[in-house]
Amino acid sequence: MPPIIAPSVLASDFANLQSEAEMLNRSQADWFHIDIMDGRFVPNLSFGLPVQAAIKKHAQKPLDVHLMIVEPQLYIEDFRKAGADIITVHYEACPHLHRVIQQIKLTGAKAGVALNPHTPVSVLEDIIADIDLVCLMSVNPGFGGQKFIENTYAKIEKLKALIVKHNSQALIEIDGGVNQENAPKLMKSGADVLVAGSFVFTAADPEKTIADLKNIAY
């Protein structure tokens, strides 16, 4: 199966979000990846509900919303109302993770869990069957343009084994440092969804770059 490509809007030109959204609509991208940062869970601020809602007005593809925030349970309904189709929360930010996953599903959105690079996939043992997506951070969250962490390949393989063991339908998403060079190995390791930010939006031809990722040989 070809990868699901989810360009990260965080790396786009914020002064031209409508044209960037229209470019993604024309492209072979499957989802819009929306990074929400609060300056507390991660050392950076991005954008919030009004900007996501503005993107939704122009997006013709699902919004994959990644909440890098503390206390995400306070905002689940708001992000769903602002157009989120998939809502991913961080394991590290949710002491009551099962409750938050159920909260997301009650809104009608798909539920994802993200893991920071230092967090082992084994923490998902008791909940993997309940979630739709696992986002493995292949850089430390908070900033774009970071170097890819090589341990990610082994982590994907461990996660894939956990998914199979529990007959889960969860997709494996990779977020951080994805490019043309590492994408084939990521797919071979078991990834389903590739998030690409700077690699897409700083390219001379973003649509072609997305097409090349979508049609990667592995």
TrEMBL record:
Its EC number is 5.1.3.1. Keywords: Carbohydrate metabolism, Isomerase, Metal-binding. The keyword Membrane does not apply. A divalent metal cation binds at H33, D35, H66, D175. InterPro entries: Aldolase_TIM, Ribul_P_3_epim, Ribul_P_3_epim-like, RibuloseP-bd_barrel. The keyword Transit peptide does not apply. PROSITE patterns: RIBUL_P_3_EPIMER_1, RIBUL_P_3_EPIMER_2. Signal peptide: none annotated. One of its GO terms (molecular function) is D-ribulose-phosphate 3-epimerase activity. The active site is at D35 (proton acceptor), D175 (proton donor). Binds 1 divalent metal cation per subunit. SUPFAM superfamilies: Ribulose-phoshate binding barrel (SSF51366). Coiled coil: none annotated. Substrate binds at S8, H66, G142, F143, G144, G145, D175, G176, G177, G197, S198. HAMAP family: RPE. Belongs to the ribulose-phosphate 3-epimerase family. Catalyzes the reversible epimerization of D-ribulose 5-phosphate to D-xylulose 5-phosphate. This is Ribulose-phosphate 3-epimerase. It comes from Adhaeribacter terrigena. The lineage of its organism: Bacteria, Pseudomonadati, Bacteroidota, Cytophagia, Cytophagales.
